Each structure stands twice: as structure tokens, then as C-alpha cells.
Amino acid sequence: MEWLLALVIGVLTATGVYLTLRARTFPVVLGLTLLAYGVNVFLFAMGRLTIGRPAIINPATEMYSDPLPQALVLTAIVIAFGMTAFLIVLALKARSELGNDHVDGLDLAKDERPLEKTNFTEEQKQHSKSIQQESKE
Amino acid sequence: MHLAAWPVFLPLIAGFIVLFAKAKGLLWQRTINLLAVSGLVVLSIALIKESSSGVLQVYLLGNWAAPFGIVLVLDQLSALMVGITSVLALASLVYAIATDTDKNGAHFHVLFLILLFGLNGAFLTGDLFNLFVFFEVLLLASYGLLLHGGGRLRTKAGLHYVIINMVGATLFLFAVGALYGILGTLNIADMAAKVAVLPEQDLGLVAAAGLLLLVVFGIKAALFPLYLWMPIAYSNTAAPVAALFAIMTKVGLYAIIRVHGTVFGDTAGTLANFYMPWLLGLGMLTLILAALGVMAAGRLREQVAYLVLASVASLLIAVGLNNPLALSASFYYIIHSTFIAGGLFLLADIISRGRGSYDDRLESGYAMPDAILIGSMFVFGAIAITGIPPLSGFFGKVLILSASLEHQWSGLVFAVILVASFLMVITMARTGSLLFYDVLPGNGTDTNSNGNDISSELPNRVATIVVISLFALSPLLVLFAQPITAFTESVAKQQFDSKHYIESVLSKQPVEAGKE
Description:
With 137 residues, chain A is mainly α. Helix content of chain A is 66%, strand content 0%. Chain A has one domain: Helix Hairpins, CATH 1.10.287. Chain A is built from five helices and no strands. The model of chain A is unreliable at 111-119 (pLDDT under 50).
């Protein structure tokens, strides 16, 4: 069972790291989610692997499993859930405001030009159009 | 009275009240927020007084004895950090209200108070997992504040900031999990006690987890190579938020001092201070890169963000020197750099409003209204942050350098700090002359050659007073240098005495039923 659990943590983390390093926001969101899953399983394993033992005091049993990692995982799940929800909304906002779904957004040199803060340049419009067409295809 | 718990709960309770006061209008929200933050300032003065006796105030949440429950620990360091935070928060709140920044979005005041809740919690907690939770609280509030007001560049910067901090949260959990798996505890004091008697085969794993934790705190403190998010995020957010964020990088630094200093301090046996060379080396690299960043910045806000980075890097060097004198110098420098950096962010906003469509880009524009006053303030701030005599930046750097004399790397530390300061002095002189001397003819009321409207704004009087009062703390720090350094020395002494910390936390008994 140990090697299976180690494998699960390893695969989840490796996939998560790979996806987090991608250039577009959706794979990054997925990657962060997978990383969060990986770390949750890891936290769980830190209470040592036990089978059929209760975490809550029960006069009939002698051996317990460690209840603390379970509480930690619960907290971590809630936090990761909230953060992911926020990130998805932010990614959608970035998609609509920047005109594409690249994590790096628009070319910074174009953004820094004066008085174009609210108006897209022709080049940028073309760029976002071509991306929209790509995604349709 | 449990004084230690109040700085955590006051902003939380006030935050809820402000949320419900939204129906009553902005005036109510502003009043309640101002009252709460002023209350925090008063409270933090009481905390500093209370903690100066040298006795640690330990508050057991839910009346569970350490290490089984979560503890809040008030010592001089946490009292000092809470104090700095509340004064800075008051200044940036007044600025936000004076310039109507809080009108640009829905929940500015709620997020502001929740950020303070997270910050104070992080400063006071004595539990590693609780520190993680407070980090997440303050980060979530800071995401909201960073995006406050909207705008494309802000959204992009916010996206980077959120993603890197989510990666940081995951790494934090890996480190916490690994430490719990070996040490079987999450209480910082108990961890320190367990690390001292660690069997040899576990040393490597604990050291790895400790360094992973250093990476996590390094992201918060903007340590090389994890600083790239920071200038972008800070330079694109609203000015009062950026000013408040001047304390956010110091949270990472505080966490390094608190967690690593206690768990891997002098009591840790084989692992004692094993992370220090990393901190010192990376701190010096960060300082050099920050100085180059200051030179390369194309906008004033970006420049100020790099100056903040440079001040954090100097602090990391001071902590990495690992002696009580250097730590005391770093506490002095924290007080100085937080207020001056916050003031500079606000001043950059005043300047960019004054320059109309030229914004804060570093190129010649028309003379701004009230240029003499604003220019004098800029000179003052630049002198303070780059460390030229006679202001507190110089004094702080002298303290750090004199503390480094006995370290084996002292030559390198001297060279790095002095060269970086020199580069920053030159650059700030160039920035000042560009903004205030090298102005285009005309007064800027008409349109420029491209036919663009130039709408410069008169400086807001309250906002100007806020910046002046933040800057005024710098000469005060010099005038009262003797009592302040005496105070920071006692803070550093207490922080180095991790045995006392461990004993105080672990010996605290829960109150019995019926007794207060």
C-alpha cells in the first residue's frame, strides 16, 4: 500500500508541476488543483498509514489513527477550494480584459505606451481575433 | 484581560460590522474602519508596553494547553510588528479616504480589515499550521485589495501574484506535513524542543523541510529568485494598497525570524542555524538585483517597488549575519523602511496625479502644481530610503554594517550594501531632476503636441499631510535613536533566547473552570 500511495502523490505532484508551468490559464488552474490534491494525500500520509482504526475516542478500541492530519487536510481542502474558485474568476476576468488567456497577458511593451490604457491598438485587436479564430477551429 | 488576543479579533469583528454597514453607506464604513484602526494603534502601544517586561504573554485558544491546542504568543517582536502594521494601516487608510480610492470598488474597507486580521494573526500565532491559515487569510484579502479599482495591467499583475502565492501555499503544506510527520507536533516551541533531540537519521528530512519552508517565506519576502512577482504587483495596484503592502514583504521576513530562528536556532544541535548562509548569500544577490531594478525602472511606482525590494534584501542580509546586534539593527531598519516605503508609494501617487497624462513615467512632463512642496518631499523620501545622512536610512545601514564587522563575509557584505546604495542614490537623483527640474515649457493647462488632454490635479491636502507625517518618523527615529536601539536590542535579545520562548509556551497551564 505504501508504494501505491507514494506513486499517487508523485504522479499528482509531477502532473501538477507540469501543468502549472503551462502558458495558458486553464492548464495552470488544473495544475494548481492537482498540486493541492497531491499535497492533501501527502498530509494524510504523514499521520502514518493505518487501517480500520478510529480517530475519535472509543472505549472499545486500543489503537487510534492520528486525527490531526485529517483535520489539517480538511482545512487545506477548504482553503484550496476557495483559492481555486477565486483564481478561476480572476482568469475569466483576465481573459475578457486582456483579450487572451495567456498567463503573461499582453505584450508589456505595447501596454506601456501612453494613452492606450483603455483602447486596444489595432495590432492587439488583430492578435485577439486570431486567437479567437484559433479557439473556434 | 488577554491582551494578546485582541489585535487578532478586533479587526475581524470590525470587518464583519463594516460588511453589514455597507447598507448604511460609505460614511459609516469609513468611520468604523477608522475607529477600528485607531483602536489598533492604541492597542499596539499597550502591547509594546506590556511586552517590554520581558515576560511572554501566552494565550491558549480554547483553553487547550500547548502543544495540543493553538497558542497566541505575544513577545516584544510580535508587539513591534503589530505596532508598525497598525500605524502604517492608519496612514494608508486616511490616504485612501482622502483621495476617494475606496470608492473605486465594493469592499475596500472589509478587505482592509481582514488583511489586518491576517497580518496580526500571523505576527501573534505560535503554531505553524495556524501561521499557514493566517497567511492564506491575509493573502486572500490582499488579492482583493490588489485588484481593487480594476484595470488591465492590475488584472495581469494580480493573476501572477495569485498563482505564485498558491504555489507557495502548496509548498508550505508540503513542508508542514513533512515536519509534522517527523516531529509529531505543529507548535513552534514544541518543534524547537523536538529538533534539539532529533535522532541522526531524521536530520536530512527535517533540514529539507526547513529549507522548503525558507522557500515559502522567501516568496513572501521576495527573496532571489522568487522576487519577480513583487515589483509588478506593487507598482500596478492602488497607492494606499501598495503602501500597506510595504508590510507584507516583512511578514515573510518575520516568519523566517520567528520559525527558523526558534526551531533552527542555537538550541537545535546539529541543525543550528544551518539556513543562515543561504539567507545571507541570497539576500546579497537580491540587493544587487534590486539596485539594478531601481536603475532600470521606467516608472516611478516600479522604482519605489524595487526600493522596497532593496530594503527587504538589506533586512535579509542583517538577519543572515546571525548575531544579536545585526538582528537589533534589522528591527531598527524594519521600522524605518516600512514607513518610508509606504510614504514613497503614496508620494508617487501624488506625483502621478500632479503630472496628469504623463502619469508616473520617468520622462519630462510639464511642471506639476505645488512642485516645490512635492519636490522637497521627494528629496526627503529619497534621502531616507537610499540611506544618505542625516536620516534614519543612513543610521540603519550603519548599524547593519557595524554588526557585520566580525562576520567572515564582512568584506563582501560591505561591498554589496555600499555599491547598491551608491547605485540607488545616483538613480534617485536622476529621477528627481527628471521629474522636477527637466520640465517642458508651459504650465500644462493646454493640450500637448499630440493633442492629448493634460489634466493635472492639485495635490490633495490631507494626502500630503499623511505622507509628510510618515516621512517625519524618519528624523524622529534618528533623534530618539538611543531609546529605540535600546528597545530593538532587547527585542533581539529576547528573540535569540529561544530557550525562554520554548519554556514559556510549553509551561503555560490552562485556566481552570470558574477562574479567570
